[in-house]
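Quick illustration, no need to memorize.
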Amino acid sequence: MPSALIVALLAARTADECAGFLTPGAFESFHRELGLSYSSASFVLVVAAPGAMLGNVFTVLGDHRSRRAIGAGGALGYAAALLAFGTGQSMAVLAIASFALGMSATALVHGTELALVDLAGDDVTAYFARGMVFGAAGGVLGPAVLVLAAATRFGWRGAFLACAVPMAAYGVWLARLPLPPPSHPEPRRPFRALRPILRDVRVWYCGLLALILAPLQHPFTSFLIAYLERVRGVSTALATAVPVTWVAGSVIAAAAASRRGTRPSGRAMRVNAVLLLAATLGATTIPAMPVIVVCVFLNGFALTRFMLALKTLLVTLHPQRVGSVSAVVTTTEFAGFMLPILAGALADTYGLAAGFGFYAAVAAVLLLAVVAGDRYLSSSRAI
């Protein structure tokens, strides 16, 4: 397996995590410079989600058309969106750029991931884990680019323009690589292949799990910082530093699973759902800071292991239509972005502790869904 090709495919996660951080990271800057209301500035952020959903058209096409064209086109579209964001002078331009960024990110990440799945074979879990480690590197680079741009007075626009250039170069690199073609394409009516997938209850079960899991990632850490400052009274610096332990737990879990031959056990999702619930309950109910730090670390660790097990399961459901399965699951997952709004409503009505405690309830629902799903699927197989 050519190492340069594997690195190129894994690097998609680095590129996406780095460039994807710029928009939320520059939120206050473009809000202030363009004189936008917070509602208008928030719209610029939110409109990336429907763009990402529309991008799932490319995910489905990845089962039938050139992954090289999809991945490279996604990177070049991403670069164009970054360029538009760095030069745009109105809310309308920034909103269009954000929408295009979301759509291009889906094409880039899923186009390269489908090629990686074909190359990985039985080692797919290990390569998913390596992709997460590469993504963590991008998660560090994104804030670093913004900090450096601010320190050198290039500003937030300079950060977007600086990332547009390597993203475009990455797209050209992908376009020159021999990515594996689809093994069983449907040349004339590719979307007809979605029908058996849409009828498969296992796919919707995985979509439900992904939907519940989504708020336990970035929204959880966002509420964690506010909770530590406002309820526990810790300094802003310390509150902001605590989520680093979440990242550390995630990276350690991914690194441990990146060895070739790694495969999640049949009970991996249930075990990690239990650990995730225990860690989230501890973080939301126990006031001692050392306990909170440990629980946040375990949260990142368990969530990453759960996600690896879920992604591995998705690959096995319809091996010749992995892109179509991923498209259905990720489209369902986007509905989970509505759940943090409920946490915000609870915080507004009953206080921040109640809003943060909502995430423990989400973890409990995840465990119940895993247990119920395991029983249902086991009984179906028995029949």
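The mean pLDDT is 88.
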